[in-house]
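Hi F.,

I've been meaning to write this up properly since the lab meeting, where we talked about keeping a consistent format for the predictions we share between groups. The idea is simple: the sequence comes first, exactly as it goes in, then the structure tokens exactly as they come out, then a line or two of notes. No screenshots and no reformatting. I'm using this chain as the first example so we have something concrete to point to.
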Amino acid sequence: MIFDLLAHQALYRSLSPRFAAGFDWLLRFDPSTPDGRIAIQGDDVFALVQTITTGPAAEKRFESHVKYADIQCVISGTELMQFAPRSSLPVLEPYDLSRDIAFHADPSVSSDVICGPGSFALFFPHDGHKPCCLAGTSQRVQKAVIKVRV
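Output, unedited:
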């Protein structure tokens, strides 16, 4: 897991050309973009633009992926994200290949990251994560999740 500001994205472009394409798209992001899926490089790199309302962490589930890494970039609002190694997460719903997702129960130990505007959390397939949690009070958050095939 990596947490940083989009202003520092140049540090992570060398992960692969796909990550670089995702960061390029985020740098050009227009906040008036409607929610939905946007192709960047077909199914290899795409964006999911989302407007969510944060809620209590106890009402959210950890998730993990196999085929994609997530760059979860907050555009507006503040969101708490939890993370833990996937290997430490009890499985609630087994991996669904068609959706590239498994859901997990809370582990005994996890870490929190508070993401505000212009920050991102990069979750690799070995990182379980619980997004959309409130940081203090519930609020509306606009975010872009870049899915990068690894």
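Notes:
The chain has one helix and twelve strands.
The chain has one domain: 2-149.

If this format works for you, I'll send the rest the same way.

G.
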